[in-house]
Each structure stands twice: as C-alpha cells, then as structure tokens.
Design goal:
By secondary structure, the chain is mainly beta. The chain contains no helices and 8 strands. The strands form 2 sheets. Strands 1-2-3-4 form a 4-stranded antiparallel β-sheet, with no helix packed on it. A 4-stranded antiparallel β-sheet has the order 5-6-7-8, with no helix packed on it. The radius of gyration is 13 Å and the shape is globular.
Length: 100
C-alpha cells in the first residue's frame, strides 16, 4: 500500500468502502495509516509505536479501534477520526484482536 515502509499489513476497509486503515512497520516501530482509495494517498494516524496491530473500524466509520502496547501492557486504543482524540482501554484475558 505504501512505498515508504518496509512492511504493510492488516488492512481494514471502512464501512463506506472509501478508505482503508492499515499497520506499517519500519525500523522496528509500527504506525497506523489511513489510505484514501479515491486519491490514493496515505495519512499517518498513529506513528512510532512499539506495537500496533488489528485495526478495526466502528460500524459507522467514525472511530478506529486498534491494539497497542502502552505502559508495559497490551491495550485497546479507540481513536476518533474527526476529533483525533485517543482513549486507552484495558484488555482482559488473552484477547488481543481489536474488534467492535
């Protein structure tokens, strides 16, 4: 998807079918990108994380839920695309795949 990264994976199509979110890994760090299918442009949403995986769109496409490694533990990060606000949520048990 992107020529700037070493590895891009886990694409997730938005509910309206107009964009993707995906994880990219470069130099041992992960980032989350949003790719507009019409303009073919990628924009970084979250950058330089130790771990970021399993992005998932909210049913209305307003937020993205993604698994991150934060403060020594796996957590879910809920990211609002309009306000760019981030909210960390704890993960209980063995589950690590973000999903609504």
């Amino acid at each position: 998807i992107s020529k700037k990264t070493q590895l891009s994976f886990r694409p997730s199509l938005s509910p309206d079918g107009k964009s993707l979110v995906y994880v990219a890994k470069a130099r041992g760090r992960t980032s989350l990108y949003r790719y507009d299918l019409a303009t073919k442009r990628a924009v970084s949403i979250l950058a330089g994380l130790d771990y970021c995986d399993y992005p998932s769109w909210s049913p209305r496409g307003r937020e993205i839920l993604v698994t991150v490694f934060q403060e020594g533990a796996l957590k879910l990060l809920k990211y609002n695309l309009k306000s760019q606000k981030k909210k960390f949520l704890p993960i209980s048990g063995e589950c690590k795949e973000a999903d609504w």
